[in-house]
Amino acid sequence: MGGRSTRIAPLDPADAELFAAARLRAARLQPYLATAVFALVPVASPGLGTFAVDRYWRVYVDVETARAWGVEHTAAVLVHEAHHVLRDHHRRAEACGVTSTTHRLWNLAADAAINDDLIDDALPLPGGVLPRHLGLAPNGLEEAYYGDLLDDRDLHEERDEPAVEPPGCGSGSGGAPADGEIDDHPEESGVDGLDDVDAAAVRRAVAHDVTAAASRGECSSPGLVLWARDLLSPQVPWRNLLRTAIGRPVREVTRDPHVDWTRPDRRADSRPDFPRPGVRHRAPEIAVVVDTSASMDQSLLDAAATEINGLLRRSGVRTLHVVSCDTESARPQRVRRLGDLVLRGGGGTDLRVGIDAAAACRPRPSVVVVLTDGETPWPAAAPHRTTLVAVIIGEHAPLPVGPGITAVRITAPT
């Protein structure tokens, strides 16, 4: 989480300054994409000649190329790469049966669909393939463009347009991996990046920002609005996302045994002159913060509480610290099941005090789960050495994003 180790070396100070300026500018070019742009993990890739992105939201940066582009054009390229991972082009390519012999066509189709929207939004791309370069109609979907290119694989080669050369956007675009791409999964290896749960949280947060901007007339990218509305339609059962979000940090606590001298090793009898300690698997310490403000949907709260209670009991958790909170935090309760709760509140909402109270419990919790409708300020990051799982009940509030924070949205009590 926030304090995990990483094998990705930070950018040099001068390169980091350029990247930060470009990222800030990118967030201003499409403000509703700011969450995605700031979620990208930069990886220095000298000699790459462009930018690329992998499936874990690592963006591969050739800083010399960025200097040649300038901050404005580099910002537009960052937005382009963010679109690849936002639109889940890697998984969509797999669903379309893209192979090593056709990934170039998919990459072209994905680039054309993205750039068509970015040009509509007046972003200053330094080149880039557009649908017209491929003989395709504007405002199309990636899958449709890919199908058309498959029907006539030689069509794009007959166009006298240098922008249709292989763009090399990396595995995150559904194309070929970029030179020097890191193939390690973030959760399994500790290398920085976003896994599926964190990526899903970022996508939903951005989708809400996009639809809100569209309702105010601020978003001029029709393809992006279509993507956001489609994403916000219920697709994955919330229980599956909740189990993954809570189960992952719990497994991190329980999977590694700890030395315990009070339990001799079972094989110590073979060497009575050389005592050896046994091992013990530590039970996870969990705290739950329950939003008791007047706006909470009780049926959804009951559904979430029931699911979390069952999940934690299956994980070996026998007792919980539970904090009820609106604008003030009640004293933490020690309960054996969430059904034992005595909830107090009913006023406004500021769950930061409840999160602080939960993190201060002893033993210190390794996971803090927050049940809320999301109408609250959030901390910038999870408490130190703690994973914060925000369970947002309802469709309206944006999902929190920050180091050590995972968010899941509950939309129905089914």
List the main descriptive attributes of the protein structure presented here.
single chain, 414 residues, alpha/beta, Rossmann fold, 2 domains, six-stranded mixed beta sheet, three-stranded mixed beta sheet, 14% strand, globular, disordered N terminus
Explain the overall architecture.
The chain has 414 residues and is an alpha/beta fold. The protein has 2 domains: 13-205, no CATH class; 238-253 and 281-410, Rossmann fold (3-Layer(aba) Sandwich), CATH 3.40.50.410. It has 13 helices and 11 strands. The chain has helices spanning 13-29, 34-39, 63-69, 71-86, 89-95, 103-120, 142-151, 186-189, 196-215, 222-232, 238-254, 298-314, 352-359; strands spanning 41-44, 51-53, 58-61, 258-264, 277-280, 286-291, 320-325, 333-335, 367-372, 387-393, 405-410. It has a 6-stranded mixed sheet, with helices on both faces. Strands 1-3-2 form a 3-stranded mixed sheet. The protein starts with 12 loop residues before the first helix and ends with a strand. The model is unreliable at 1-6 and 158-165 (pLDDT under 50).
Which SSEs are present, and which pair or pack?
Layout (H helix, E strand, L loop, with lengths): L12 H17 L4 H6 L1 E4 L6 E3 L4 E4 L1 H7 L1 H16 L2 H7 L7 H18 L21 H10 L34 H4 L6 H20 L6 H11 L5 H17 L3 E7 L12 E4 L5 E6 L6 H17 L5 E6 L7 E3 L16 H8 L7 E6 L14 E7 L11 E6 L4
Helix pairs in contact: 1-4, 4-6, 6-7, 9-10, 11-12
- Number of helix segments? 13
Give the SSE order as H and E letters: HHEEEHHHHHHHHHEEEHEEHEEE
Helix content: 25-40%
Q: Termini separation (Å)?
A: 31 Å
Count of individual beta strands:
11
Shape: globular
Q: Give the DSSP E fraction (strand runs of 2 or more residues).
A: 5-15%
Compute the CA-based radius of gyration. Answer: 24 Å
The neighbouring-strand order within the major sheet is: 8-7-6-9-10-11
The class by helix and strand makeup works out as: alpha/beta
User: Could you describe the largest sheet, including whether it forms a barrel?
Assistant: 6 strands, mixed
In round numbers, the mean pLDDT is 79
**Low-pLDDT sequence parts:** 1-6, 158-165
The tally of domains stands at 2
